[in-house]
Every structure is written in structure tokens, then in C-alpha cells.
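Input.
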Amino acid sequence: MSIALDADQPVPDSAAASDAPAEKRPSKRPDPMVGAHPAGRRSPKDLLQASKAYQDESRGRSWFHVAETFAVFAVVMAGIVLAPWWWAKLPLSIIEGLVVVRLFILYHDYMHLAILRNSTLAKVIFYAFGTYVLTPPSVWRATHNYHHANTAKIVGSHVGSYLMVTTDMWKTMSPSDKRMYKLLRHPLNILLAYFTVFGIGMNVSPLLRNPKKHYDAVFSLGLHAALLATLTYFFGWQMALYTTVLPFAIAMMAGAYLFYAQHDFPEMHVQPRETWEFTRAALESSSFMKLGPVMNWFTGNIGYHHVHHLNSGIPFYRLPEAMAGIAELQQPLGTTTLTPRDILRNFEVKLWDPATGKMVGYPD
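Output.
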């Protein structure tokens, strides 16, 4: 059960048989397609041009956020190690998991070339971090670049994202394919993302498919196993639990849900692949998650996801500024939160219905 399938993996037969041939593998920074866009919205070319004003990075600011976040991580980790009671370790472990989410967004931005481009030191730091958090750089780069170039396309939606099918495709799927689809989109898959999405999806599956290309998954799995074994042997299972297992479980569950909510929400629009257009997919198939300042810090502003999909080269700390400065971004098609009500709403929609132009649940 995984969302992180490789960009060169074949499209499942059930999907390919229900739509046009599979998409060509895109370049890392594809040119936007010219297609229909709503009246009153600037043309794709003009909208992308407007977003470029926010791409400029402050190198000092980027390094400050890297140093700041790793410092917080180190302080929290030290607190877990030194705290004598479990009830003190537990909340610190939860905080560590949230700090890992922020560190992951810094890694994510570096891989997008949004921050610290061409920095050898940054490459060492973030490649090591990606290996540490079970997100090998080769796998992340292949799947995430594909995802950005093909947001909300039905064919190939399984690459780097949660598989999405139409109501017509659902009718033709085999019972086993339907069961797998339900498992992939089940909250339990997100709850156990440490093992499913990241352990299997980001490491084991890519390694089995293409060992030569994804050899760094060996280092990621090996490092993780060695870390857990070392902590358990020398310091006991509780140290391994509070410094690694629980924070990773929290961080990966949070990351898996954030990604789900960013591209699976009731109001989203999925374009026909024949008229698919990049900027419209960014604005109408990516949500805006409204969070407070504390959670925006922990999540590195990734809730401004429609802005990020319009231009992935905008540093995370400039996403709010870009939303405030570009009129088309100020009324997102889908706005969500982390309230139980919104989480439930997002999990209720499972299929795209072209006839009604809406996301719907499973047929009775």
C-alpha cells in the first residue's frame, strides 16, 4: 500500500483500458499546456509570469530557517534523552515528530531548487536527512516531479500520489483492484504511513522495481534498521520508541494526510486529459489548508499548496506573500483545515464523476 510509485512504472491495466494511452514522461519543469481557463483569470503564461516575482530567494533567510529548525530538533531530542519520566518524554516525542515535518518541507524545497540551489553543504545536509527519514532522494525526485507535472490527471495519478479513478473506470475494475484502491485511500493507510507509505512505498517497492536506480533506498533502510538496533541495544527499547519510532510515526502520518488533503477534497476539479492545463490544475486540484501560525511553522506553509503547485520554485517562506499578491490565488477552490469535520469530508470523496463534475464516494 503506497502512494510513492516510480515515474517509470507502467500504468495499471485497469486504468489504461479506461482512458487514452499513458502519458509521456514529462521533463522536470514542463512548459504549461495551453488550454481552457475560467473567465477573468489571467492566461497561463501571464499567471506563471506573475508568480515568478516571488521566486527570489534570500540565501541568508533560507540558512536561518535550516539552522533554526535543526536547532529546535536537537533541543527537543536532548529533552527526550534527558527526561527521566515517560510522561515528559511523550509530549517531547510528539513535538519532535512535528519538527520532522518542518525539516521535511525544507528538504522538499531544496529538492525543488526553491532554496539553497547549488550549495554543496545543503546537498550533504538534505541528502543525509532524506535518507534518515526513509525518503531516498532518487525516489522522491522521480515521483514528486512527475506528480507536479501531472496533477489531477487520471492516467498516471498513481505516480507520487494517491491513485484516483473515475466512476466509469470503477465499474470496470476487478474486485481485487477495487479492494486495493480502497486500501490505498483508507485512513488506516495514512495512520500506518511509517510502514506503508514510507517504509514500503518509498523504499521497498522502488528498490525491488529498479535496484540500480534506487540504490539509495538500501542506505535508507539500512540506516534506519541500524539506528533502531543501536538505540535498543545500548539504551533500551524506550529510547528507540521515544526518539525515533513514535516521532517518525507521527511525522509520516501527518505528512501522508497533508498530501491526501491537498489533492483529495470535495470541491476539487479534475480536467479531461485532452484539455488539461497546468495552471488550472494547480489552482483547482490543489487545496489551501487554513492553519494557525504554530501549525504553519511546523508544516512549513505547505498548506498554501495551490500556490506551491502554481510555482514550485517559490521558497516556502514566501508562499503567503505570493498568495497575498496574486489575485487568482486569494479565493482557492478548496479550503480545508485540520478539524475533524474537514478531515471526515476529505475522506468521504473517493472517485471523480465526469458526468457531474464532482468528487463522489463509492457506489452503494
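Residues 13-19+49-360 form one domain.
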